[in-house]
């Protein structure tokens, strides 16, 4: 199992690598329009494939191998001169054309300069104690967090959920990539190493937005603050089957986590995670839209 992470600061925990200097950067103000246009075009059919790195300039060539090559040539049966989109999971996106196919891979020539799409809105980081879930429930949690737009998911180790199998983490990584491609994201969702719950309060104390799913707490929509364009990230925390212990809740609340309720019914871990993430994504997206409209007006 990967070692539990100890975080020296919240900013270090959520750090993103700096964008390449030469790649065309699409600023946040334009990213929404670009994303909508890209999604519309995707429905019409340019298939998208992942490449760990992308060249910067029109005319350069990318080699596609492994599972992506298999999907490109054996599943979709694409060949010479077929057009595709490539993304690197860090915001890079480019259109290309297949120029060569052999038994080991295919060469795709870039038809334009690569673009770098800036992240949009608040980046939500999920901390959920799902290590004990069985029967595909953890798979479903990870897949839906990816589709909804979570920036990262961190398995949370607690008194009642104290482990997660290493082979499960490997499988979940593969699920993330499949879900990223399916929902047309250009930024990967990061599946982080598990952490112990006693390492979480520091990150909570350094975040202005930290929400703790808790029974009998006020409804989530009644406690959401007025969203500020200055807020770049937030946390949501979901306990294990059997919930957090009273001491764990006490420590998280003392660090600044805001307890929120998710309705009158008792929810499973994966249901609570998706319910809270959905509410927060819709809230922050609406606030971002209002801010954009205000700036245009």
From TrEMBL:
Subcellular location: Cytoplasm
InterPro entries reported in the protein's UniProt record: Alpha/beta_knot_MTases, PUA-like_sf, RsmE, RsmE_MTase_dom, RsmE_PUA-like, tRNA_m1G_MTases_N
Gene Ontology biological process terms from the UniProt entry: methylation; rRNA processing
GO cellular component, one term: cytoplasm
Enzyme Commission (EC) number: 2.1.1.193
Enzyme class: transferase
The protein's name in its UniProt record: 16S rRNA (uracil(1498)-N(3))-methyltransferase
Record organism: Triticum aestivum
């Amino acid at each position: 199992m990967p070692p539990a992470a100890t975080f020296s600061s919240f900013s270090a925990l959520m750090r993103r690598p700096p964008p390449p200097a030469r790649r065309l950067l699409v600023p946040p103000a334009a990213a929404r329009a670009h994303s909508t246009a890209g999604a519309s075009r995707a429905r019409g059919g340019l298939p998208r494939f992942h490449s760990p790195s992308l060249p910067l300039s029109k005319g350069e060539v990318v080699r596609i191998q492994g599972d992506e090559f298999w999907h490109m040539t054996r599943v979709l049966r694409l060949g010479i001169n077929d057009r595709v989109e490539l993304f690197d999971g860090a915001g890079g996106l480019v259109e290309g054309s297949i120029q060569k196919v052999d038994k080991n891979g295919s060469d795709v020539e870039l038809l334009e300069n690569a673009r770098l799409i800036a992240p949009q809105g608040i980046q939500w980081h999920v901390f959920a104690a799902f290590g004990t879930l069985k029967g595909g429930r953890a798979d479903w949690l990870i897949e839906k967090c990816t589709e909804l737009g979570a920036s990262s998911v961190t398995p949370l180790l607690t008194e009642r959920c104290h482990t997660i199998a290493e082979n499960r983490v490997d499988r979940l990584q593969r699920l993330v990539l499949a879900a990223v491609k399916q929902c047309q994201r250009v930024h990967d969702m990061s599946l982080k190493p598990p952490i112990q719950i006693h390492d979480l309060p520091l990150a909570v104390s350094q975040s202005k937005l930290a929400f703790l799913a808790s029974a009998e707490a006020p409804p989530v929509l009644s406690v959401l603050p007025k969203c500020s364009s200055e807020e770049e990230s937030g946390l949501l925390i979901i306990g294990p089957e059997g919930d957090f212990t009273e001491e764990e809740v006490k420590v998280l609340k003392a660090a600044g986590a805001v307890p929120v309720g998710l309705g009158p019914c008792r929810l499973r871990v994966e249901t609570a995670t998706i319910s809270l993430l959905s509410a927060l994504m819709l809230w922050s997206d609406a606030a971002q839209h209002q801010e954009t409209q205000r700036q245009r007006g």
